[in-house]
């Protein structure tokens, strides 16, 4: 027989599970009434009503004025998440800047800032990120912030050209450093997982979507049934040593044709420098200059087609309902070449058409917005715990 403590813990988990189902449904599907919530979640109307009452008392939900009645019966009172009284923050360490933004639970921008990177060590970069996040917290109000998300670039280990960047901070060190400075819950994840969550919560993504992020590394993450799969340290991160069909580029792991040596910006940069298309010391951004050259276009086009050959292999293993490709692949023509190759190769592999597209969602606060989705997902997974944590931060500090 369960002890009183175990029974209490079970009740708390059940309450939080119901609260999570309610909050997640409202964020995804918009304002809903209690009966609609019961129907969508499969939770009894009585339990829904009781949990909604608790969430309303905590300020995690709001009631809107019911629309004019269209017939007999009691009008439905829509429930929604607050606008600016509950916010999520997202931060990002770029090689040249540090940025942070605050967003509503629907992903609407409240405020954001970006400052030139000044730190020259990992510790300095972490501290300047914490200072910027703290400034945003102060601006929007400590009580409004439910959590903070930060992304790590998950770039490859470097050997020679190009050198490692100061922005490539260790994720554990980043989490620890932020927690030393900030009182809010902090979630640190690879950037591709943040983008998968952003697409699901705020970008109209479906329930089964594979996200492929192309940049200094190639990473993958998958949403299935509303949850990120492949949970755990580094989960859904790099696919560095999947072999690209037809590639002859040697990898430092000893294989030939790995994604790391063939498809990443780092690999592309090494080839551009080695062939004289770019001078030594060039950065990844130099692969995409405003004043483009035919040599760089050929290099990027070949990389786009290599991606088109290897991404279908990953898709055939995880069988997603939809695949989105993100990152700075190249010009629109190079992106089209990549997507066309994916479709062609996928049909050859599995015998059916692929639902795949390039996700081009440009905004100046692109990375903070994605990072904030990490905090949103954590909040919606355990809203009652986060509300309790938020309430504790509002208590006055006793003076000794």
How would you describe what is shown here?
By secondary structure, the protein is an alpha/beta fold. It contains twelve helices and twelve strands. Strands 5-4-3-6-7 form a five-stranded mixed sheet. A five-stranded mixed sheet has the order 10-9-8-11-12, with helices on both faces. Strand 3 and strand 4 (97-104) form a beta hairpin. The longest helix has 26 residues, at 4-29. The protein is globular. The two termini are 44 Å apart. The model has no long low-confidence stretch (mean pLDDT 89).
Topology (SSEs and partners):
Elements (H helix, E strand, L loop, with lengths): L3 H26 L4 H8 L3 H14 L3 E2 L15 E2 L6 E8 L2 E8 L4 E8 L5 H19 L4 E8 L18 H11 L4 E5 H12 L5 E7 L3 E7 L2 E2 L30 H4 L2 H10 L19 H25 L3 E6 L4 H19 L5 E3 L7 H16 L1 H12 L6
Parallel strand pairs: 3-6, 6-7, 8-11, 11-12
Antiparallel strand pairs: 1-2, 3-4, 4-5, 8-9, 9-10
Helix pairs in contact: 1-3, 2-3, 4-5, 6-11, 9-10
Pfam family, one: ROK
Protein name: ROK family protein
Family: Belongs to the ROK (NagC/XylR) family.
